[in-house]
Amino acid sequence: xxxxxxxxxxxxxxxxxxxxxxxxxxxxxxxxxxxxxxxxxxxxxxxxxxxxxxxxxxxxxxxxxxxxxxxxxxxxxxxxxxxxxxxxxxxxxxxxxxxxxxxxxxxxxxxxxxxxxxxxxxxxxxxxxxxxxxxxxxxxxxxxxxxxxxxxxxxxxxxxxxxxxxxxxxxxxxxxxxxxxxxxxxxxxxxxxxxxxxxxxxxxxxxxxxxxxxxxxxxxxxxxxxxxxxxxxxxxxxxxxxxxxxxxxxxxxxxxxxxxxxxxxxxxxxxxxxxxxxxxxxxxxxxxxxxxxxxxxxxxxxxxxxxxxxxxxxxxxxxxxxxxxxxxxxxxxxxxxxxxxxxxxxxxxxxxxxxxxxxxxxxxxxxxxxxxxxxxxxxxxxxxxxxxxxxxxxxxxxxxxxxxxxxxxxxxxxxxxxxxxxxxxxxxxxxxxxxxxxxxxxxxxxxxxxxxxxxxxxxxxxxxxxxxxxxxxxxxxxxxxxxxxxxxxxxxxxxxxxxxxxxxxxxxxxxxxxxxxxxxxxxxxxxxxxxxxxxxxxxxxxxxxxxxxxxxxxxxxxxxxxxxxxxxxxxxxxxxxxxxxxxxxxxxxx
Length: 590
Ligand SMILES: [Ca+2]
Ligand SMILES: [Ca+2]
Ligand SMILES: [Ca+2]
Ligand SMILES: [Ca+2]
Fold this sequence. Notes:
Blueprint: H1 3-13, E1 18-20, H2 24-29, E2 37-39, E3 51-53, E4 82-85, E5 94-97, E6 123-127, E7 133-135, H3 137-140, E8 147-154, E9 163-169, E10 173-177, E11 183-185, H4 187-190, E12 198-204, E13 213-218, E14 249-253, E15 259-261, E16 274-280, E17 289-294, E18 300-304, E19 310-312, H5 314-317, E20 333-336, E21 345-348, E22 357-361, E23 367-369, H6 376-380, E24 385-391, E25 400-405, H7 412-415, E26 426-430, E27 435-437, E28 452-458, E29 467-472, E30 477-482, E31 489-496, E32 508-513, E33 516-521, E34 525-526, E35 530-531, E36 536-541, E37 545-552, E38 558-565, E39 568-573, E40 579-581, E41 587-588
Parallel strand pairs: 31-39, 38-40
Antiparallel strand pairs: 1-2, 3-30, 4-5, 5-6, 6-7, 8-9, 9-10, 10-11, 12-13, 13-14, 14-15, 16-17, 17-18, 18-19, 20-21, 21-22, 22-23, 24-25, 25-26, 26-27, 28-29, 29-30, 31-36, 32-33, 32-37, 34-35, 37-38, 39-41
The structure holds calcium ion (4 copies).
One calcium ion binds next to loops.
């Protein structure tokens, strides 16, 4: 059978799925979910995905700077992230690509790389009305400073414009959006420069005071002193075991443009080798929780307690190590409900021969590995993954997976001839019974091998199908337009918080159609080093209307919209009080 025939056989023979409904009230107040089976129609779409690389056509010519030194510095291979956000509120997503900076071979201890020439600048690309992009880096003030790695965009001061936090080796930067895609470096006043080697970061309102706080992963304690790793004739990048761990940086937003570092106060100062971070209220107690993907040490699940401090519960929750009790090279992570039961699940990427981790949330504070039951084990065993996001690329109401891939060792093919340094992306379809790798039948981009690292997702052309931008180590960024052929319906929510943070980050949204319910946590966290479209997207399958959309805002306010017409973006403002809105108060965005 051809891959397409095999795929169709799996899809067409699969029995209809059942959905299980957790009520909005249960989402809001937590206790045991109310289970109520709802008929789920068979797959509305049996078509594979189709993603097209439109980078050149879009006029984007970015090249990431990363050296391949003879010293095989760890930083050589870690890449930089990418962000999708709308810097001028014109309704079109813009792209920010993070870049490295030069260093010598060898580099002396204590050296902090600087961007000494335009080829090292981070780049801001503004999307024009015709869908092409213009490079506005100089005007934007976002060219960056040092060897930059991660990016997280959000409106931290609730003025209606998305701001940008950039992480890197030797210090981080906060850029305040002046409202027109120009930015002011406010790092010093804000007090968020940090230090050491920062990787992924995320904006999240930890204490629900309406102000986004900032959680910053740091990777390892490292200073250009890598030992010789690998055989004498094939020096390779060192395993992170060679470097000590380091704590996260956690900045509380004081509301006056300044921040206070509180990792220790909040119980978030457990030594980590952190590369990925994702947010969800996994136990539905109304307080947001954090998952930190660690490289080759136990993974961290930080549960927020009633007093606002955190306890690390990875081990007792069943997510700190794999099924064999071993650690793995956790890199990217996403925390979202893939089986539509109302409880956020987990995916974590790692290196080849480890297989990616996938966990189903059992609803009692614990997780069960689902790598075997879903087919995930065989599918991912030979791949090395970085950024990862659950996204419903075919709008059938089930969240699929898109993964940026490539090994960390540029020497891997010498030692392991069956593995590859450069790898194509992976697209995995959620059939509701399990996952199927549809990469090979979903377009040429899934045959092009890259050193994939960062990835952000979002609807770049506002056609209701989620697109992606992928960054590569030492290579270009790739804009992947989703052209999946489907008649499925969709809806996109543009949340605006008023009591809550303006982006609505941390809001839990439950959407119900005749076929069942789905849940999404609003977030810009994106896998590895990256920042995604803050808008909330749902596939509606063959339903043209969402019967009910329930939103639990971070403030605790509950909002219910009924009979919401799909195939459009709608603006949703946080109301002053909880309640059902009988008439849909929302307006089409455009
Ligand atoms: Ca824009
Ligand atoms: Ca806060
Ligand atoms: Ca919680
Ligand atoms: Ca899907």
